[in-house]
Amino acid sequence: MQETPKSSSERHIESIMQHLEPGSDRYEVLDKAKRFKSSWVELGEKLLDVSKRGRFREWGYGTFEEYCVQEIRIKRGTAEKLTMAYRFMEKEEPQLLDRREELRPLPDFRSIDLLRQAKEEKGFSAEEYGDLRKRVVEDDKSHPTVLKKFKEVAALREEPNPVVPLKAAVSAAKRLDNALRLLESVPQEYVRQVGELLGHLEQELNARDLGAETEAGNLREI
Predict the structure, then answer these.
(1) Residues 187, 7: Cα–Cα separation, whole Å
(2) Residue 218 class from Cβ within 10 Å (0-12 exposed, 13-18 middle, 19+ buried)?
């Protein structure tokens, strides 16, 4: 059977590995990166250790991001999701880590990171989190499917911004006011009423903006 051609990232990683001692920390991280898709947990664990201990500096890199991009060939966002997903698994799903050799492949690290966000950032209820976890851990749903569900629940929990429809109303009233003033056939009473409505909406919008600035100022003083 013909071998699958190696990607440029794989060739880059292997070229560095040739000059390192097998079994060394740097070698091991590269090895995990080369097998990223089947062993994201191992890579997440190694990257977390590299970041905590600042090993990247010993290897000639100024920042962890620089190390990830230039040597491991993964973006900063991916590295953050990998390390945070591993830390979350370690804390919330240690049984999965213990069975990592049995579970091949493990749940997608992006889906695990969504579980983390649901629990730590988005304030999902126990029932909502349990449903999302079931999709990720038990039902092995694809990441796009999990992401769709996550967005649906997260959208319901986000408080609507009352300023958005108010600004839209001001814009609509301005357009109507300008249009009416160009029509000679429209009774002036209607023009006056629209003008008053526009003034009321602008006054309310300015009051909300002023309130937001005052609140921000108070926070800065603390």
Answers:
(1) 72
(2) exposed
Report how far Cα 64 is from the mean position of its chain's Cα atoms.
19
pLDDT in tens, 86-123: 999 999 988 888 776 655 567 889 999 999 999 988 88
More confident residue, 146 or 219: 146
Q: Is the dihedral of CA 180, 184, 185, 186 positive or negative?
A: positive
Instruction: Note the helical H segments in the chain.
Output: 8-17, 25-34, 40-53, 55-58, 64-67, 76-92, 94-98, 109-120, 126-133, 143-157, 163-181, 188-221
pTM: predicted TM-score of the whole model, two decimal places: 0.59
Q: What is the DSSP letter of 48?
A: H
CA nearest neighbour of 146 among 117, 121, 172 = 117
